Amino acid sequence: MSLIWTNSPITAAHLARIAAEEIGWKRTTTYTVVARLCERGILERQGKLVRPLLTRSQAEDLALRGLLESVFEADRDRLRAAVERVLPEEEKSLDKHSQV
Question: Model-level pTM?
Answer without folding.
Answer: 0.68
